[in-house]
Design a protein that fits this description.
By secondary structure, the chain is mainly α. About 65% of the residues lie in helices and about 0% in strands. The protein has 3 domains: about 130 residues, Leucine-rich Repeat Variant, CATH 1.25.10; about 60 residues, Leucine-rich Repeat Variant (Alpha Horseshoe); about 80 residues. The longest helix is centred in the first third of the chain and has 28 residues. It is rod-shaped, with a radius of gyration of 34 Å.
Length: about 325
C-alpha cells in the first residue's frame, strides 16, 4: 500500500470516528432531558430524603407521570406518599379542567384497582383535586372511587370518601350518613361537617331531632361540631341544653328535663313532651303525661294512645287519670 493510500485510509477512519463522536454527542444532547429524568427517577426510588427530588420532578412536568405511576403499585408507603406529593404539586400547577389534569386523573383512576393499599389511599386523596372538573369520565370514576372509599376498612380511605362525597356532582350525600357512627372519631368529625349543617339543595340529610344524639358522642370535637350544626339550624342555647337532656342515656337526666319543662314558660314543651311520652323508661312516660296535664298542654290524642296501648299498666292508668282531668 502506498503512502498516499495509507494517508487516505487514516483520513477516512478519522473522519468516521469524528462522525460517530458527533452523532453520539448530538444524541446525548437531544436525549439529555430523558437521561436526566431517568437518573432522577432512579434516585427518587431509592432515596430516603426525597424533598429536593420531588421539586425536581415537578419541574420536569408531565413527562414524569408515566415513570411515577408504577410506584403506586409498590407496597411501600413512604414511596407512595412521595409519589403522591409529586402528583399533588402537578395538580396544583394545573387547573381541574386542564387537559393534563384530566389525563393524569384518568390514569390514576384506571390504575386504582391494581394499586397497593398505600397507593390506593394516595389516589383517593389526589382525586379531591379534580372537584370542579365536568368531564364525565372523571365524575363517574370519582363516584365509583368514593363509593369504594366510604366502605373501606382504612380510615384514610373513608376520610377521603367523605370529602369526595362533598362534590355535589357525585350525588353521594346519603351514603355519608352511616359514617356519622363510624368507629373513627376523625371520620365522624368529617361526616358531621358534611351532614350536620342544613343542605339547601337536598334538604336535611338527618333530622334535627335525630342529630341531637351526637351531643353525647364520645369525642369532644364531634360534640362541638354537633352544637355548631344545631345552631346553624336555628336552635337556641336552651333548645340545645334541653336536647342534650332529652337524648341523655341516663333516665334521671330525662326526668330532670321534665322538671325544667314544667317550669320554663319561655319554652313550648309540646314537642319535647311528645318525644318523652315515647321514652323507653316507664317513669319518664308517666311523668310526661303528668307535666302535660299540669301545663294544660293540648295532649289529648297522645294521652288517649297512652291510656289504651302503653306497654306498662301503671302508665296506662296514669294517662287515663290525667286524660280524665283534662275532660
Amino acid at each position: 500500500m502506498t503512502q498516499g493510500s495509507r494517508r487516505s485510509r487514516w483520513k477516512w477512519i478519522a473522519g468516521s470516528l469524528l462522525g460517530i463522536v458527533v452523532l453520539v454527542g448530538v444524541g446525548a444532547f437531544t436525549q439529555r432531558e430523558r437521561i436526566s429524568r431517568y437518573l432522577t427517577i432512579g434516585q427518587f426510588e431509592k432515596a430516603t430524603d426525597r424533598a429536593a427530588l420531588i421539586e425536581t420532578l415537578v419541574q420536569m412536568g408531565e413527562p414524569v407521570v408515566a415513570d411515577l405511576l408504577p410506584m403506586l403499585k409498590r407496597d411501600d408507603a413512604e414511596l407512595c406518599t412521595a409519589t403522591g406529593q409529586v402528583f399533588a404539586k402537578l395538580f396544583d400547577t394545573w387547573t381541574p379542567k386542564d387537559p393534563r389534569s384530566v389525563q393524569l386523573a384518568t390514569e390514576l383512576l384506571n390504575g386504582f384497582p391494581t394499586d397497593s393499599v398505600a397507593g390506593q389511599k394516595i389516589v383517593a386523596v389526589l382525586m379531591l383535586n379534580m372537584r370542579g372538573c365536568t368531564e364525565s369520565q372523571i365524575v363517574d370514576g370519582c363516584r365509583s372511587l368514593a363509593e369504594i372509599s366510604l366502605k373501606s376498612g382504612e380510615v384514610e380511605m373513608r376520610l377521603a370518601g367523605v370529602q369526595l362525597a362533598m362534590w355535589h356532582e357525585l350525588k353521594l350525600s346519603s351514603q355519608v350518613v352511616p359514617l356519622m357512627r363510624d368507629t373513627s372519631p376523625e371520620v365522624r368529625r368529617s361526616a358531621m361537617l358534611f351532614v350536620g349543617p342544613r343542605s339547601e339543595g337536598d334538604g336535611d340529610l338527618i333530622s334535627t331531632e335525630d342529630l341531637l344524639a351526637w351531643l353525647h358522642d364520645a369525642d369532644a370535637e364531634v360534640r362541638r361540631l354537633c352544637e355548631m350544626s344545631l345552631r346553624s339550624r336555628g336552635l337556641r342555647e336552651d333548645d340545645i341544653r334541653f336536647g342534650r337532656r332529652l337524648t341523655n342515656p341516663n333516665p334521671q337526666e330525662r326526668l330532670a328535663l321534665l322538671l325544667d319543662l314544667g317550669q320554663a314558660d319561655a319554652i313550648d314543651p309540646t314537642a319535647w313532651l311528645e318525644r318523652l311520652s315515647h321514652d323507653p323508661v316507664s317513669a319518664v312516660r308517666a311523668s310526661a303525661a303528668r307535666v302535660a296535664s299540669e301545663r294544660r298542654i293540648e295532649f289529648d290524642g297522645r294521652l288517649d294512645e297512652m291510656s289504651a296501648s302503653d306497654p306498662d299498666a301503671t302508665v296506662r292508668a296514669i294517662a287515663k287519670y290525667y286524660r280524665g282531668l283534662q275532660k
